[in-house]
Write a structure and sequence with these properties.
single chain; 85 residues; alpha+beta; three-stranded antiparallel beta sheet; two-stranded antiparallel sheet; 1 helix; 5 strands; extended
């Protein structure tokens, strides 16, 4: 499920970039290789005004545990592996 959530987030972000007049989506998911070896992937290359920007995106959700008064503390929020705080 986490991979699907990330892909959904990227598809929404792609749609936003494609619909925004001030932004031009140059590349999405650009694989960087040195000959046959994959070095990585660039999530987004966009042009905003005269600047070209490289964006890496991620999304993560946390669940609040305990009473609502406890949620002001960082320890009251857990991530997907129950160890993330």
């Amino acid at each position: 499920a986490p991979k699907r959530l990330g892909r959904r987030f990227e598809s929404l972000l792609t749609a936003l970039f494609e619909q925004t007049e001030q932004c031009k989506l140059l590349k999405h998911g650009l694989v960087v290789r040195d000959q046959k070896q994959t070095l990585g992937e660039l999530d987004y290359l966009i042009q905003l005004d005269s600047q070209v920007l490289h964006l890496e995106v991620a999304i993560k959700f946390y669940a609040g545990i305990g009473s609502s008064s406890d949620r002001s503390r960082q320890q009251a929020w857990i991530g997907p592996s129950c160890q993330d705080r």
